[in-house]
Specification:
Blueprint (H helix, E strand, L loop, with lengths): L1 E5 L3 H12 L4 E5 L2 H9 L5 E5 L1 E2 L2 E2 L4 H7 L5 E5 L4 H9 L4 E4 L4 H13 L8 E4 L2 E4 L4 E4 L2 E2 L4 H12 L4 E3 H8 L10 H15 L4 E6 L3 E6 L2
Parallel strand pairs: 1-2, 1-3, 3-6, 6-7
Antiparallel strand pairs: 4-5, 8-9, 9-10, 10-11, 12-14, 13-14
Length: 224
């Protein structure tokens, strides 16, 4: 899952980015509204975490622009402005949730799971294909109840393929799901992740298989 974090405080941004990455999320951090607008235009994020006090204006002013480009993307406002009037203004502006600083990472993750379960986000927190079950809320894959231990990148590849089960996923789409704006992507890095994931799914008898479409991308199918 790829998250856009709009936060101008370097220490807060670094702490949140590190915490979210620990839960197998790809985080793109930008410090200004202008940078956020450019990032939103890429249309690659599953959710936006938005600070209010930014160098070039109130974060709430970004929400209509996000809705104009990607109406269904969940937005959680993160701010020190916790008065009732501020919370109402945030929700009335179109935010899906409003979290007052300081907050725990666990609460933020719970709220992220909640907004992603809504109709505009995930239709279900679980998905089954073959003997494989993927828990989108807790970032876990299992085969007939046995947890499948996967590194973060492989988990992200599997999630992206499962979301488009039975359809070819283009290489750029997979790369966007796995890497953030600052990552340097080696030419064969994605292929390496897919190869390792394919082997682990086979070893676990997961009942699904990954097919490579030369020069195009990858396809996850249930075995017949």
């Amino acid at each position: 899952m790829r998250i856009l974090l709009v936060e101008d405080e370097p220490e807060m941004a670094a702490a949140l980015s590190a915490a979210l990455k620990g839960y197998d999320m790809v985080v793109d951090h930008v410090p200004t509204l202008a940078d956020a607008e450019e990032a939103i235009a890429a249309d690659v994020h599953a959710a936006v975490l938005l600070d209010r006090r930014l160098p070039d204006g109130d974060g709430l002013s970004l929400i209509p622009k996000v809705r104009a480009r990607a109406d269904g993307i969940p937005i959680i406002v993160l701010t020190a402005r916790g008065d009732l009037a501020d919370r109402i203004a945030g929700l009335d502006s179109g935010a899906d949730d409003y979290l007052t600083k300081p907050f725990s990472v666990e609460e933020l993750l719970a709220r992220l799971r909640a907004v992603l379960r809504r109709p505009a986000g995930l239709q279900s927190s679980h998905m089954r294909a073959g003997r494989l079950t993927f828990d989108f809320s807790h970032r876990e894959a299992s085969v007939e109840g046995r947890l499948l231990e996967l590194p973060r990148r492989e988990l992200l590849v599997l999630e992206a393929l499962l979301r488009r089960l039975g359809r070819t996923v283009l290489r750029p789409t997979l790369e966007e799901a796995v890497y953030n704006f600052d990552d340097e992507i080696q030419s064969n890095a994605l292929d390496t992740h897919v190869s390792r994931l394919r082997r682990k799914l086979t070893d676990a008898n997961a009942g699904v298989e990954i097919h490579g479409i030369r020069g195009v991308g990858y396809l996850l199918k249930q075995q017949t």
